[in-house]
Specification:
With about 375 residues, this protein is mainly α. Among the domains are: about 70 residues, Annexin (Annexin V, domain 1), CATH 1.10.220.10; about 80 residues, no CATH class. It contains 19 helices and 3 strands.
């Protein structure tokens, strides 16, 4: 019943008693309304393995699926987090991939984040889980929703054919670096297939050496060349592959930061990253987040929550109030200050800031559920 990783923030709950947890869950869903605090106390503070025991025995005792009961009781992002916590890691990944391709449009971020960051063994299991659940193969569905070179990179990642060894061939690393340079910076146009062949096939240690050699040959970091030579989803997937190879926790720290900053943010990135990495490497992600942004992940999420509540017109304890009843808050993000005033039902924003609909989609309960997944620093 231990956590699935060594660097996760969620660890095995001491004194774990399935019977007591089931009783609390049933009481939380009894009658009108739902006791979200009780759900948080149980589900957010148990490992995936412990939650599986709760699910199994809940079904035995009640004759119904815990996930189904929670699905009918909850809604919005709180529901998404709770249901995600009940899933095994590959099941959650398969679910997120399916959701990203369901309906009109495709959420490329989910395809990129998951397929670029998982190990070959993890991808193989995701493929099996997806096929069992949906009949179609994951590759077929990806091909049906994507196109061009972006599709080819995803298919390559789905084959789970990356060398998982540790050997480095110095001569081949030099040649790989030259091949990538000649396929991009050294020519008119870009031969993306050469990037795919090297970045999706070679093992991590070898590629780290390739990146060193590439800088010698080109005078640039490989990420800079990818940004210069590519665009759109293709640029994003190659950048994700490189960043995950160099420092996976830093990649996820960046994803979390961007999920809470700027226009166009999607809730799914924040939720997916928090749920998927809570038991694996969240402690390392927190370290990288602080190095990169000078704020703890916990404090940044707390700041984001406060800002969301202000924009939603909710009162936040501790906000100063002048005689005219004008509430204000100063938010500092990346060295840029944004001032927000609330006067009655009116929201006045600093000209440098643009409001997006995503600011209104979080509730206090959702963030209370996310907090235990990172632990207060």
């Amino acid at each position: 019943m231990a956590a699935i990783g060594q660097r996760g923030a969620v660890t095995e709950a001491a004194g774990f008693k399935v019977e007591e947890d089931i009783k609390r869950l049933r009481e939380a869903m009894k009658g009108t309304g739902t006791d979200e605090a009780a759900l948080i106390e149980v589900l957010a503070r148990r490992t995936i393995a412990q939650r599986q025991l709760i699910k199994e025995q809940y079904k035995q005792q009640v004759g119904k699926s815990l996930a189904d009961d929670l699905d009918s009781e909850l809604s919005g992002n709180f529901q998404k987090v709770v249901l995600g916590l009940l899933m095994l890691a590959p099941v959650y990944d398969a679910h997120e991939l399916r959701t990203s391709m369901k309906g009109a449009g495709t959420e490329e971020a989910a395809l990129i984040d998951i397929l670029a960051s998982r190990t070959t063994e993890e991808v193989k299991i995701i493929n099996l889980v997806y096929k069992k659940k949906h009949d179609n193969s994951l590759e077929d569905d990806v091909c049906g929703d994507t196109s061009g070179m972006f599709q080819r990179v995803l298919v390559s990642l789905l084959t789970a054919g990356r060398d998982e060894g540790t050997a480095v061939d110095p001569a081949l690393a030099v040649q790989d670096a030259k091949d990538i340079f000649e396929a991009g910076e050294a020519r008119w146009g870009t031969d993306e297939v050469k990037f795919l062949t090297v970045l999706c096939v070679r093992n991590r240690n070898h590629l780290l050496k390739v990146f060193e050699e590439y800088k010698k040959v080109s005078g640039r970091d490989i990420e800079d060349s990818i940004k210069r030579e590519m665009s759109g989803s293709l640029e994003e997937v190659f950048l994700a592959i490189v960043k995950c190879l160099k420092n996976k926790p830093a990649f996820f720290a960046e994803r979390l930061y961007k999920s809470m900053k700027g226009l166009g943010t999607t809730d799914s990135v924040l939720i997916r990253t928090m749920v998927a990495r809570a038991e694996i490497d969240m402690l390392d992600i927190k370290v990288e987040f602080f190095k990169m942004y000078g704020k703890t992940l916990y404090s940044f999420i707390k700041l984001f929550l406060g800002f969301c509540w202000i924009l939603a017109g909710r009162h936040i304890r501790g906000l100063p109030q002048d005689p005219a009843g004008v509430m204000w808050r100063r938010q500092v993000e990346a060295g840029v200050s944004h001032v927000v005033w609330l006067l009655g039902n009116s929201i006045i924003l600093h000209p440098a800031f643009t409001i997006g609909p995503w600011h209104f989609t979080y509730t206090q309960d959702t963030f209370s559920l996310l907090y235990p997944l990172i632990k207060k620093q």
